[in-house]
Amino acid sequence: MTVSEYMLYWLNTYKKRKLAVRTYESYKETIEVHIAEDDLGKKLFDRVTPDDIQKYYNRKLDKGLSGTSVLYHHRILHAAYNQAVKSRWLPWGMNPCAAVEPPEKNDYKPAELSTEQMAYIITNTSFHEYTEKGKRKRVPALKLPIIISSMIGVRAGEVCGLQWPDIDYKRMAVHIRHAIKREDGQLVLGPTKNKEERWVPLTPGLKTILDWHKKEQEKDKEFYKTMYNNQGYVLAWEDGRCFDPHYLSEYFTKAMVDIGFKQKATFHSCRHFYASAMQSAGANLKYISDALGHGKMDNITADVYIHTQLEDMRKYVTWLDEAILKGVLEDIEGHIEGHTPL
User: Fold this and answer.
1) Residues 87 and 26 in one domain
2) 12-34: string of b/e by CB count within 10 Å (b at 16+)?
3) Element spanning 176, H or E
4) What pTM value is reported for the model?
């Protein structure tokens, strides 16, 4: 059995049921595109030496792969060979990956967007889906998911998983408890990345935009009637289907080129913007961590949390209405009054 054959066997036998779908696909792609196509992948897996693996890392680095990417390969190889050691498939009983020098992880610095840049992105993207020129593929409306992510700090999967009952107008808060994920080729609603729920403040400006959007969505329901796939998603195609988080990431990057935005940014940059905005307004790290879902909520009831910590958090985000939503709010007001199209 070659290295690539063993890696795929290990992946499908030991890891497939444990890994998230996207992680499994990433492992599989790494094995098939990188390891299998290299000399290492063609060697007998139980005859591979630390030298063979070290030279594989060196070759990948020489070809321009980042240290972070090669370290990812190392972790997959190390895990697979750990299982081979446990299964007593290696004649010397030692993991060859334990004796190599993997590269160090590259320093990662997320794109930092200013309020002016965030306002520019929001102003120049669209509320409406459209078809790419010369293609049949529909492009999702990006303006609203960008607004939501930059105003409440949600991940792409979480913004796609928001449903109308999650918007608590009475408490002026958003309950983040679900995320859309792809499993076996299907989009499914599941828990958040860390399986924790959280609450974040809903600003008056974001409430106005969501109110307007809900009325527009009602028009879609009326048009499609029984054909409308009503699952209650805040973000939905015209026929009610949920958005694919991968589409948001893919088309955000394309949209930045289309609107002439020069700085490198991804959809995830909206979430980083929210964190930076809270920090610049004086929020402490615990509030920021809780809002992003990095921390675990204190052992108190949700009601107490909403009425104390959440209310205190509100002062760190309300200023964003004026900073990045002013133009959109003016457009919506003009549209409602029949003065301007959107």
Assistant:
1) yes
2) eebbeeeeeeeebeebbebbeeb
3) strand 173-176
4) 0.75
